[in-house]
């Protein structure tokens, strides 16, 4: 299925002399482009669809762009989420935004069945920024050490992957992914998207991968 590219993804070159986190010099994807299409002009959901919960309220999200494994979704309230497979890689429209996320090596979530017998460890680096994009609200290269393991559920066709992550000086958090046992596609997920916002819950109404 083809999807119209409704707006560009300009890159914001950010630099910040932060004393807590090293400035990696990475370019951040500005998901809320000034030329975004009016909400009433967004396409009606078809094919893949996404439902989001943030702070207990559910809202549907429209698929705006699809570039390989990367997909961009937007709610009618202006929240934008970028996903790769079933993992959130960036957000916008929140008081604190996940500007970028990357792994040192492959993402173990890509092979969930292998995590049943062999839990895996991974290191993620994330960039955060406040909604006002002021330099003092930007944090680059935050290191998260994560451990992933899978377990069966009552539904023989579904596995639950738990991802426990910690950063220096924090108590950490746990992401949960419900995935198809056969193909590994994420059906539902609860994910951390920043220390100052609630966990983001997503339900894919079609294959995530």
Automatic annotation (TrEMBL):
Coiled coil: none annotated. The keyword Lipoprotein applies. Pfam families: YjbF. SUPFAM superfamilies: YmcC-like (SSF159270). Keywords: Lipoprotein. It comes from the Bacteria. InterPro entries: GfcB, YmcC_sf. This is YjbF family lipoprotein. It comes from Paeniroseomonas aquatica.
